[in-house]
Design a protein that fits this description.
The structure is a single chain. The protein is mainly α. It has one domain (2-383): Growth Hormone, Chain: A (Up-down Bundle), CATH 1.20.1250. 81% of the residues lie in helices and 0% in strands. The chain is built from 17 helices and no strands. Helix 1 (2-23) runs parallel beside helix 3 (60-84), helix 6 packs antiparallel against helix 7 (154-178) and helix 9 runs parallel beside helix 14. The two termini are 34 Å apart.
Amino acid sequence: MLGALTSSTGIWMLRLGQTLTLLQVPGVTGWSVGALAALQTAPLIVLAPVVGLLSDRVHRLRLLVVGQLSMAGVAVVEAWSSLTGRSSVTQSLVLAAVLGCAAALDHPVRTSAVADLVAVPDLPRAVGSVVLTTQLGRVLGPAACAALTAVRGTSAVFLACIGLFLAFAAVLLTGVRQGRSPSRAGGGFRAARRALREDPTLLVVLWFVGCGGLVGPNLTTLATLTVGLELGGGALEVSAAALALAVGAVIGAGATSIGRRGPTLRSVGVATAACGVTAAASGAAPSHPVYLGALVLCGATALFMASQAGALVQVRVPEDVRGLVTALFSVALIAGVPVGAPLMGWGADVLGPRLTAGVSGLLVVCGALAGAAYLRWGPARRRRPA
């Protein structure tokens, strides 16, 4: 749990540090900010299935070590560029893509490893606890980033990230040497496809998560554009917005971790609709303090949806394809970023951030209603296992 907190804190510090560095480049546009966010996550869509397949067959800690060392390398280059004043839009986008590749070796593997440590009846709370610990990094990361940026500049942020990633890698290497990894024989892509075909519940969960992913993972980009373009905020105000989202995320993840009832399709669907409603409502916030409060609600609903869906997937998925299906879940969750983040940046340039938030939230609500209709009248109702 402590390692997940360390890694998550470093990731969110590095992501926000990259955004702040880009905002300092002369002539930057909303599209560039959206493209940066897309490149930070797009590689996960391509690499996650392969990483998930590997995590069903090889030592998961080794994959995590490679991811931590790769992210430390990105932080080294960012620190050097910040100290020498040689940052550019092109360099920022390239480093964001490298960070996205490294992150693909972290989140799916870390999530699927939970099932190696706890019994099936305890999986919902265990997944919720891991998500909660990870989201605490979303609180600590932006807070540390804001403090370091105000005192020492963005270079200090990147130097701190290097230390966090290397510390977690050292802990993981200790586990690799001790050989703490269960013996597994992964089922492969055919087994995963069969599992999804035989249990339509998993497909509906992926649909809900994909709809929520149009807004949830893009909230940081949307908040950055709203604060910068509509509310006249700077680096500290952007960091405060990210912190508000992180506080809400902790609340949403904590609700799953401490809840007595297990996750259900209904809870995932309701949370998806709530994610869209709160995102649309945030566009009407009249001032920066009110907007921060709206972002807390956005973060809470988005992470409650993600943690409920993640716990439900872990409970229902077969063990031999757990890593691969978990990776597909991660893809569904962030698939909206490569498309949604640039479109939100474009929408902010054309329509304004507020109207963009309203339209995006409405699309998520429509998707949730479509999923609910499929549950009530579609084949999933007739084929759903008892």
